[in-house]
Design goal:
By secondary structure, the protein is of the alpha+beta class. The chain has 3 helices and 5 strands, in the order βββββααα. The chain is 17% helix and 16% strand.
Amino acid sequence: MSPAERPGGTADAGATPAGPVRTCLGCRARDSQGALVRLAWDGHRLLVSRTAAGRGAWVHPRPDCLRAASHKGVLARAFRTAVPAGALAGSALGHLLAGGDVTQDGQEGVR
């Protein structure tokens, strides 16, 4: 039983964020869904989309988390399939890793 569920109890301010919570592939920290971007593998390319079909994985849109997510095997483990080594660099997240910005639908530009 969480502190908020106990009679007279209150949740800690630093507890679980409100709404859906996801784990970042890069830093493994849990955060609200809104603070992360969703990646999906369509069998040929890496997509940045909250609505793309298939298995998704979540990552903070920060260079350190993106670098960690791009290490060998991390994406393959998340998608449960082989993912080419350069998939992240060739995606919209590669643009973000290079210092750009992407929208949640994978388009380069301002979020």
